[in-house]
Amino acid sequence: MTEFNPKNVRTEVAWVYGATLAITGGLALAQTSVGWLREFILAIVAALFLYLPLEVLYRKKIDPAAFGIHRKDIWRALKNALLVSLIVFPLYGVCFHVYQTDWLGRTAQPAEAQWKQWPIEVQDAPKVIALEEGEVRLHMTGDIARVEWSLPPGQVFELRAQSQGGLTPYLTNPRNRSETELYYLQSHRGKIGFEVPGQEVQLLVKAGDDSLPPERLKLGTALQSADEMPITLTRSFFWLFNIILVQFLLVALPEEVFYRGYLQTRLDQLFPKETQVLGVSVSVMSIVLTSTLFAIGHYVTIPAPSRLAVFFPSLLFGWMRRATGGIMAPLIFHALCNLFVEFAQLHYG
User: Fold this and answer.
1) Is 302 helix (H, G, I), strand (E, B) or coil?
2) Residue 36's pLDDT is what?
3) What confidence score (pLDDT) does residue 211 get?
4) Can you tell me the distance from the alpha carbon of 208 to that of 212, in angstroms, rounded to the nearest whole number?
5) Spatial separation of the C-alpha atoms in residues 181 and 202, rounded to whole Å
6) If the chain, 349 residues long, is cut into consecutive pieces of 10 residues, what is the mean pLDDT of each piece?
7) Under a CB-based contact definition with an 8 Å cutoff, are residues 260 and 282 in contact?
8) Which of 329, 332, 324, 317 is nearest to 260 (CA)?
9) Which among 41, 76, 69 is positioned nearest to 256, based on CA atoms?
């Protein structure tokens, strides 16, 4: 193991954190213009957060286990995470309710929560603003389907939507409508929206009297090409399996390896003065700095002030890292916090 040198460690922390900040920020900007990147950016960032600190430790001949990056006492870590969840989540739920109702102006609608969700590939708006000529985009936000298009001048846009669960126009009135069908006939550029409360919807899009080639229909935030025309979308529980894997493996795992494993341990070495907090000896300065850098990292990828709020749960992640001697407990609790928010949002409209 390399002898500890404060100056070298400060330099190492600065360039490792600076590199991740520059790369993740650059990827966030690049995804607006690089099509394939939008589909893989989460996996790329996760790989970066895992590879870079582990590579640094490997080159310095430092065992990652010395930085809490190990699977020891996994059952103890699981019990710790669940116990903290039982204590924190009730208060967290009250604060979340106040934020949703008083701050965002939403209303609690638990009876209308949709546990079946639309396919992952159509969820959320694309980050790219400008449409290419001939392109049609479709994405779902909750029960609202939004379609935007840019066809060559002179071509008309047609869309026929059918759903046995009913359809309600949201933006533009259709040319014809019934309880289960909407028919739109529009000029070469525009956007429409409609509510789909049912479990399935079929969309047939035409451009200039011809059926739109499926590869020109771009779906969701990644602008993935459709496989067929007409396209049928069906709600399912698959998103639950997907989001659990994503939160544990692509979000909590890499972030905890990087921030609570590598970064907090290095800052513990630079700020060794410890204080007893809830019976655990911690470096308050280290945990506060780690949480600050954690919040900045989130803000750089999505520059919204609300992203800085991750500073507060990060303090608890840092305490759990010291309380258990490893990253497994904060990793599990981190993923559970993210899942709690995802599931709680279903109950507000």
Assistant:
1) coil
2) 66
3) 94
4) 9
5) 10
6) 80 97 92 72 95 96 96 93 96 92 89 87 83 93 93 94 94 91 95 94 94 94 91 94 95 98 97 95 97 96 91 97 96 97 89
7) no
8) 317
9) 69
Cβ atoms 39, 222 nearer than 8 A = yes
260's CB contacts (< 8 A; 6+ apart) are: 68, 290, 317, 318, 321, 327, 330, 331
> What is the four-CA torsion angle of 250, 255, 256, 261, rounded to 10 degrees?
130
- The CA distance from 293 to 288, in Å, is 9
Summarize the chain as % helix, strand, coil (round to 5): 50, 20, 30
- Measured CA to CA, the distance from residue 253 to residue 200 in angstroms comes to 35
What are 109's two structure tokens? 């609608």
Per the DSSP assignment, residues forming a β-bridge with 162 are 181, 202
The separation between CA 17 and the C-alpha centre of its own chain, rounded to angstroms, equals 21
Residues near 12 by beta carbon (within 8 Å), at least 6 away in sequence: 56, 266
**In whole angstroms, what is the distance from residue 286 CA to residue 273 CA?**
9
Question: For position 38, what pLDDT does the model report?
Answer: 72
Distance CA 143, CA 170 (A): 11
Q: Are residues 188 and 154 in contact, defined by beta-carbon separation less than 8 angstroms? A: yes
Nearest to 267 by CA among 280, 286, 284: 286
Six-digit token string for 54: 């582990």
Chain centroid to CA 315: 21
For the chain, list the domains and their CATH numbers. 6-106+239-347 (no CATH), 120-236 (2.60.40)
SS (H, E, C) 239-267: HHHHHHHHHHHHHHHHHHHHHHHHHHHHH
Strand partners, 281: 276
Q: How many residues does the chain have?
A: 349
